[in-house]
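This is your field. Have a critical look at both lines of this record:
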Amino acid sequence: MRYGSATSGDLDDIQVGQAFGTTWSTGHALISYDYQRRDNLDTNDRAFTRDQPDPSDILPRQERNSVFLTAGQSLSDGVEVFGDAFYSKRRANIRQVLGTVANELIQKTEQYGASLGLQAALGANWQSELVGSFSQNDLSSLTGSGSVDSTSSTTWSLEGKVDGSLLVLPGGDVKLAAGGQVRRETFKEVRSSLTEPGVDADRTIYAFFSEIFVPLVGKDNRKSGIERLELTVAGRYENYNDFGSSTDSKLGLLWSPIEGVNLRGTYGTSFRAPLFRELFGAVGGFFLPFPDPSSPSGSTLAVFGQGSNPNLQPEAATTWTAGFDIAPPSLPNLSIRATYFNISFNDRISTAGALFDALSNPRWAFLVDRSPDPALLAFFEAQPESLNFTGDIPFTEAGALIDERLRNLSSVLTRGLDANLSYALGSDVGSFVFNLASTYLFEQSEQVLTADIPVDIVGTVRNPPNLKLRGSINWSYEGFSTNLAVNYIDGFRNDQVSPVVNVSSWTTVDMNINYSIGDDSSSKWLDNTVFSISALNLFDRDPPFAASGSFDLDFDIANANALGLTIAFQITKQW
C-alpha cells in the first residue's frame, strides 16, 4: 500500500497491490492485482503556470486497475506448458480551455491479452519452444462537446524457436538460436465528429531470425593479453505485406585483455514500419496568432496541425557502440562502465520540430501554406483534439496552415556517452554504496529534407540536454536503509522565443528511508513488513522558467515536471 501527495496543491496518489503465488513439485502459478489513483494537478497550484486559463490541468486525473497471471506445468521430463494473461483498464481526465470555453477530455484505455507456450527438450543440449499470443488495446476519447473517438488494435502471433550447442571449441560451446514468427496486426477507428468512414486496416508479417555465439577464447585456452574473446552474430528477415521486406544484422565482439576488464563493441542495422496509430491515429490542430515578420501586425492567425500521417514510409537505422567494463579483482566493490553510442536514422518518423517560430524561421518554410485549402482547415477544426485559442473565429479564417503532422525526416544522427561508476563500502556502522550515472550527448543532428543543412538540437527546449547526472548514496544497517540521490539536468537554449535565451540547469534531491522488520518480530502481522517514506524533489525546486511565447506552459515539459515536493508512505508485507 502506498500513499503519496504533492505538498502544494491537491494531488494525491494512492496505490494498492497484492500478489499471490505458489509452487508445487511440477509447476508454479502467480496472480497479482494493482490499483492506482492519482489526482489532477491544477495550473493554479503552481506560481509558474497561474497565467493559464482556468480551469486547466498540468497533469490529468488518472485511475488504473490491472491484473496479471502466469503459470507453468511440467507434463513430463523435458516438456513444460506455460502461459500468462493480463488485463488493464485506465481512465484519464484532463481539463482544458478551448478559446473561452472550458472543456474536459476523458480518455479510457483497456488492454488485455494472453499467451500459451510449450517447451520441449530435444536432447544433446537442445531445446525447442512454441508460443502463441494475442493482445488487444482499445482506446476511446470523449470531449465535453460529446464527440467520441475510439480505436481498437489487435496483435496475433505465433513464434517457434530452437536453441542449443552446435560444437565445442577450446574456448567453450558454440551456441545457436534460430526461429520464425508470423504476426497479424489490425487497427480500427471510429470518429463521431467526421462524416467520412473510419479506418479499418490490417497487416501480416513473416519473420525469420538466428543468432550464433562463438567463444573464441575462454578460461580453458586463455593466454596473456586475451582472457576472453567472444563473437556474436545475429540476423533477422521480415516481410510486411504493406511495406515490403528487410534483412538486418547485428555483430558483437567482447575482448577481455586482463581479468576484470572487458572491452566490447557492437554494430547493427534495424528496420521499423510505421505503427498503425502513426498512420491512422488521432489528428488535431490549434488555432492562434503566430509571430510573423511578414505581417504588418507582426502576427498571423494560423492553424498548427499535428498527429498521424497515412503517407509515412518505414524508417531504418544503423547503430554501433563501443565501451568497457572494469571490475578489478583487487577492488571487488568497484564497478566502472562506459558506452559510446552512435545511432544514424534514415527516414526517421517524427515531427519536423517547428513550434511558435514556424512563420518566422525560414527553415520551416516547407511546412507553411499561406493559402490553405478551406476543406483541410475544416478537417482540422472537426477533430476533438483541436484547440481554438482565438475564441469564436472559425479555423477557415486562418491565414496560414503549419502542417506539423508526423513525417519521415531525411536523417537523424545521435552520438553520446553513457557512464556509470559504483563503489560499495562496508563498515562497523553499516554498508554504503556510492553510485554516479551520467549521459552526455555530443550531438543529435536532424536533417528534415535531403537538401537541408543538419541542425543540432541538443541543448534546446523540448529536446535532450547535453548532460544528465544522477548521483546517489545508499546506507544500510541492520533493518534500516536510506538512499539520497541528486539529479542534475543541464541548462539549455530556448530557441522558441526571439531573441534566443539561455535557461538555467535544474538540480533536485530525492530521499528514501526504509525499515524492514524481518521475520523475528513478536507479532506475525509485522513479520516481513517493510515501512518506507520517500521524498521526491526534497527542496521543492521549481523547474527552470522557459517562456513558451504563447499559450503553452512556461517550463520544458520534456525535461522537467511541475510536481514539486512529493512525499509518499509505503507499507510492503510478505505473507
User: Anything to note?
Assistant: Residues 7 and 69 are 36 Å apart (CA to CA). The first strand starts at residue 2 and ends at 6. The longest helix spans residues 374-381. Helices lie at 276-280, 374-381.
